[in-house]
Amino acid sequence: MTSLFDDLPLGELRLPNRIVMSPMTRVRSGVEGLATASMATYYAQRATAGLIISEGIQPSLEGQSNPLTPGLYNVAQIDSWRQVTSAVHVNGGRIFAQIMHAGRISHPDTTGRQAVAPSAVAARDAYVFTPSGPQPAPVPRALGTREVPGVAESYATAARGAMEAGFDGVELHGANGYLIGQFLSSNANLRTDRYGGTVTGRIRFAVEAVTATADAIGADRVGLRVSPGAGIWDVSEPEIPELYGALLEELAPLGLAYLHVAASPEEDVIRGLRRAWEGTLIVNPSKPGSPAPSTREDAERWLLKGADLISFGRAFLANPDLVERLREDHPLAVADVDTYYQGGDEGYITYQPFSAPSDLVATEG
Asked: What region holds the NADH:flavin oxidoreductase/NADH oxidase N-terminal domain (predicted)?
């Protein structure tokens, strides 16, 4: 039986275990999108993971979602990430950069620019974070047909920057209703050109972005994250088997490092992707709508169902030594929700490794 603690080859890497740190937004960057010393400490503390996938990193200013999230689109940002990758490597870890273009889940108050998307359709009943607090998701500008290839290429450009910064690879964020997911969607993408309409049209942007990135840095350094049927940020995918079957058929010949499947309301969806994808599969077993972190039992269940790697999100926040806690069946600490996005070091790099209570020793009086 495959164990969470078995090693696994991933491209030119060999992962010492099958526990992946899932990408999580923490809004701790500088105002110019620079990685910080605290971010280096945060990731280094978690370097015993088989693989770390960074928080979402915008490939352009217009791709930024929240304030104080990091970028990979200029020299200063690339340079700032070297302290992070170096700290992870010195501590024996491996780290991929997640490249995330927010598309319509952005706001001019954050970027100074109108959000862009497949179509001029706002996410319904959605509020996005801005420097002055949550605001209704704005109506984005629809990308012109001639613009779309350049936006797809921005993922590849950011991936080159990630390699310069010392990352071991990149993951394209195609999940949770951001730009790639918006193109896949039938209600956010109302285009009638080659990037919309049919399933073939709606998967085209994802295929172009992934292919450009694979060509730029090598396919074995590139992963893709998806969340079929999750419905996050008001995206609808009514024909999941057809849509994702077509997408994976196009991507399979590239020889990507992995496919990363985020939480889906239907387990059969993930099983279907396992059957369709012959390469390495990462499954995030978090339960949609549940605040509880995933457990070792959740992970082992998905290993039995064919996952190669298991990604943990919330469990890594308060447990920098998560691998060891899972190995030894130590209890998991619970993260303080109020510190998820508040900035500063508290609730970010202040969580400690597990320490067993000391045995009381009787002494002679």
From this structure: 3-331
